[in-house]
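Quick illustration, no need to memorize.
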Amino acid sequence: MEWETLLAAVAGKLDEELLLKLEYLVAENQILRSQICGRPRFTDGQRITLAMIGKNLGKQALGNA
């Protein structure tokens, strides 16, 4: 069952890559927020995009955002 080993290796690599991308985006977001005064202002389209993604993530996942 070599394909199972290969699949596990690929999945592990993708998970690692996604975690690194997420870590980068969180750090970037924190840096950018520290450079602005007050709350960020979003357009209606941006709010809709964030709301759709947030709904798919769920409240628990967004608790630390």
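Residues 41-65 form one domain.
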